[in-house]
Amino acid sequence: MLRIVAVLMVSILVCAGCSDAKKQINTQQNPIHTPVQGETPAPKAELLPIKFEKVPEYPPLSKLGSIQISVVLQVKVVDDTKVILFNMVGDDLIHSGIQVNSEVYHIGNIGYGKSFDYVEISKIRLNRSPFVKITGACGAACHITQYVAIDNTAPKLLLVAEAGTIEKDLNGDGSEEIIASASTPTETDIYNFQEQILHKSSSSLNQILGALSVVVNPNSEFEAFFNKDAVTKKYRYANNNLTLAK
After folding, report:
1. Distance CA 161, CA 155 (A)
2. How many angstroms separate the CA atoms of 242 and 104, rounded?
3. Which of 97, 107, 146, 223 is the most buried (most CB within 10 A)?
4. pLDDT above 90 coverage of the chain, percent
5. pLDDT band for position 60 (50/70/90)?
6. Nearest to residue 65, comparing CAs of 104, 8, 13?
7. In sequence order, what DSSP letters do the residues of 217-229 get, joined into one string?
8. Rounded-to-10 torsion of CA 25, 26, 27, 31
9. Neighbouring-strand partners of residue 126
10. Are 50 and 171 in contact (CB under 8 A)?
């Protein structure tokens, strides 16, 4: 009887040792991560597709006769392209136009009031082609931007956006996208060229991300603000997708 008891005691001790050894092995193979105080958890990977739609083509720019222009405010030559700011007969708005040879082509309203110091005119490249960019105002807190393709015969209007815009090659393919931002809080859209045709994001980045405000930073990242507590996330754009920046 004593021998049986002794054998049982040894068996119990051996099994207990086996269990402890297994626990030690499992712990070594699958270490438990203990969060450090203040440590930020790694962000989850996100891939958010952006749908784009074609921007409708604008009608040909109309020619203006001299009797339609009441006052020429400014004539600016940008790399052999002559851009004109003027008032038209019957209104006090500031209009923009491009002169080709002796013809003036009317682009549209680019400002209001007597001052035109806020109107900016520059030459840029989009889709590997030259464009004139004219930026003005459509109200106290409203920007307006015009893009006109330069042509020796007749200029062609590419886009009029009621927004402030910048041009950036977001995905490194050698062709710039247009980032348009407007309103308060800031709402942002992306324009890109697909098969030589301009497209616009069918939804704003705010709607896609569910964000209160979206702005682009100098690193070509989109900073999304999600609530009044300043919770932010950064995203990168490539191949018609937004991905969470690392």
Report:
1. 18
2. 42
3. 97
4. 59
5. very high
6. 104
7. -TTSPEEEE-STT
8. 130
9. 129
10. no
